[in-house]
Amino acid sequence: xxxxxxxxxxxxxxxxxxxxxxxxxxxxxxxxxxxxxxxxxxxxxxxxxxxxxxxxxxxxxxxxxxxxxxxxxxxxxxxxxxxxxxxxxxxxxxxxxxxxxxxxxxxxxxxxxxxxxxxxxxxxxxxxxxxxxxxxxxxxxxxxxxxxxxxxxxxxxxxxxxxxxxxxxxxxxxxxxxxxxxxxxxxxxxxxxxxxxxxxxxxxxxxxxxxxxxxxxxxxxxxxxxxxxxxxxxxxxxxxxxxxxxxxxxxxxxxxxxxxxxxxxxxxxxxxxxxxxxxxxxxxxxxxxxxxxxxxxxxxxxxxxxxxxxxxxxxxxxxxxxxxxxxxxxxxxxxxxxxxxxxxxxxxxxxxxxxxxxxxxxxxxxxxxxxxxxxxxxxxxxxxxxxxxxxxxxxxxxxxxxxxxxxxxxxxxxxxxxxxxxxxxxxxxxxxxxxxxxxxxxxxxxxxxxxxxxxxxxxxxxxxxxxxxxxxxxxxxxxxxxxxxxxxxxxxxxxxxxxxxxxxxxxxxxxxxxxxxxxxxxxxxxxxxxxxxxxxxxxxxxxxxxxxxxxxxxxxxxxxxxxxxxxxxxxxxxxxxxxxxxxxxxxxxxxxxxxxxxxxxxxxxxxxxxxxxxxxxxxxxxxxxxxxxxxxxxxxxxxxxxxxxxxxxxxxxxxxxxxxxxxxxxxxxxxxxxxxxxxxxxxxxxxxxxxxxxxxxxxxxxxxxxxxxxxxxxxxxxxxxxxxxxxxxxxxxxxxxxxxxxxxxxxxxxxxxxxxxxxxxxxxxxxxxxxxxxxxxxxxxxxxxxxxxxxxxxxxxxxxxxxxxxxxxxxxxxxxxxxxxxxxxxxxxxxxxxxxxxxxxxxxxxxxxxxxxxxxxxxxxxxxxxxxxxxxxxxxxx
Length: 878
Description:
Elements: E1 8-17, H1 20-26, H2 28-48, E2 52-57, E3 60-65, H3 68-84, E4 94-106, E5 109-111, H4 113-124, E6 131-134, H5 135-141, E7 149-157, E8 166-173, H6 204-214, E9 219-223, H7 230-241, E10 249-253, H8 263-270, H9 281-289, E11 294-299, H10 305-318, E12 322-328, E13 337-341, H11 355-358, H12 362-374, H13 385-394, H14 399-407, H15 414-419, H16 424-427, H17 442-451, H18 455-464, H19 473-480, H20 487-499, E14 504-506, E15 511-513, H21 516-528, H22 532-550, H23 562-565, H24 568-577, H25 584-594, H26 596-602, H27 605-615, H28 626-641, H29 645-661, H30 665-681, H31 685-702, H32 705-721, H33 725-741, H34 745-761, H35 765-781, H36 786-802, H37 806-823, H38 829-846, H39 848-859, H40 863-876
Parallel strand pairs: 4-6, 9-12, 9-13, 10-11, 11-12
Antiparallel strand pairs: 1-3, 1-4, 2-3, 4-5, 6-8, 7-8, 14-15
Helix pairs in contact: 2-3, 6-7, 8-9, 9-10, 12-14, 18-20, 18-21, 19-20, 19-22, 22-24, 22-25, 25-27, 25-28, 27-28, 28-29, 28-30, 29-30, 30-31, 30-32, 31-32, 32-33, 32-34, 33-34, 34-35, 34-36, 35-36, 35-40, 36-37, 36-38, 36-40, 37-38, 37-39, 38-39
């Protein structure tokens, strides 16, 4: 084996057993033994000539070489050993392809799509026992061939990537077969598949699935929103399956047509079928195709959908060996049709920041390929990878949009492109001058789909654009049904928009959404139609009605606020509209007051603090009513958690004053509790205890278990800050039955973690471990584990530090600091001094470099992963 993975200019050798799938089925009993022997022969030949096997897929080997002649010699040895092996009645014949190109080593494999794709295509053109070389490989080995070998010129061939022709050569030696059938290129069957000027990126699984589906289904319609690459995928699938159709594959371009009657004639012209006087073109076509084994690719059917459906149905009935692959924004809707929705390209993981991680997804690979074609040498680095990922993600992975954005790299920096995506319909222009007009700009592509809608469908699409992050059918009926468009119309039309690929239905949860690009397009239309104010106000009122009816702020069960999590973006959009809506201040205060528990459970402290401040500053917000009192309370509580305790003192006093004016005992208890927290955060524990005592007295009168348990817990925190650990522990334990009766895992976990902190402060590690493991078990059952998770991480880190497991302590400190920063939460005083001291001790024990490494590792972990690791460590210590 080569000592290092070749990189830069690399020669690749790909191999594959011909007919392996069929052989595996026919020779089930001996197939594994045959394949193992094949693997041994291949490995020995490759290693003997310094080959690096970087991937094996089934029976296909992918190897790289520093020197092209070594790849050729490895192929020659492998073919000789395979040929001389005593296979019996089941000889294995292996096809091989050699190509030299540019590729960069990355982990166990390579980054360099064009080189890898090219060698794969060269190999695919070969037959079992045949070795083919590309022109680039031939140029480098021609003068360095083994004495008994020659290279036969096989001429120019169009391979299945649909790019320009490639010159291929066959390795010939006297002791091996050298005569094979014609190469498996696009030249083997008649067709009119056009040469493509750019490489095809991604979609490997879709190509495989569609190729297999064509074997058992006679009509497949690829559906999807404009710009998703339906045509390009259909062409690639046609190229892949071409050799299965004796009479070829034929592209029928329907986009330029406006007259449905011309569909049969257009098909006939492509097939070179002449008109017969007195006979309809469709009848002539039916006769012509009746005995043909042929694939028709009907491209862009949506604007002629009825005629396309009629023609396809007639031809399929007349020609039993005919297959049709259609592309359309919606299905043809005839018997036997299989629809295949085309998704946008895969996007980078939101946490991915390195060039290697970002480049694994198809959307980024496409951007790189198209940008490099315009700017040779363009690469994604660790520095610009986040910007490229942002561009591809904000463009929803739509291939057309990504290609247009890549085109802008000729005159704009990546940062400039990203910053102008809010105006994407002006930015993304300037496509190929030879493309159809609707393919030259992003706006024109969506215009094409929009203009094919009925008037009511257009109205509904516009109105649905006010939803952010998706919606339910009920929400759509409530918000969009007004004027001439009624709820029953929405029920009928929404599935039509799904069928036309402008709205997406998630079958797993019954929710609908638009690609953000389509949504922004529709938002411009709802503004132009003068409907924005009415529809956004209806959207605001819908969410206000939901939170009113759910009584979220006093809910005892976390499940009662679960539905808001899926509509977080909708909630933010509704609150934002309060700025301009009639009675917006009142509605905004109601929303912020009613959703307090939601923000708490999600750990969104700073965000909810700022939102509350904003709605309480709107004109009309000064009315001293229940909405203002509850919004003030949200502001005060979230302000305390996010480090604004001094700023909210007056806020909480006003909230308490209004609650008293309204004789609202519940509001008084809650506000006194928040005033206690704020006082404690400011260092005035005695004042905090007085607030908690008064609130505790009122809470017992109300019989509210959850409030009572929370008050006892926070009272105990003051005692812990004052150093009275025994009294604090007693109150923490006293709080647990109340919280458990309230069936609130979030609050229960907090008390358990506080008990663990007390045990750690007293040096009782076994007891602290018990409390910690119990709290982690409770957190795992919670629907909203976010807030206690940060505290749990910190407590686990404290445990590791007290136990002098310094490296794990540093990792967990890194994880909990990252989570605290995300939530905008400040640490309570009872823990601040201890945690700071322990972090300093860990740094000293490990040394600066090792501490920073461990801390950085932890900060890159998700909360769930960090907790899972901590739980494993704690359990292992039992």
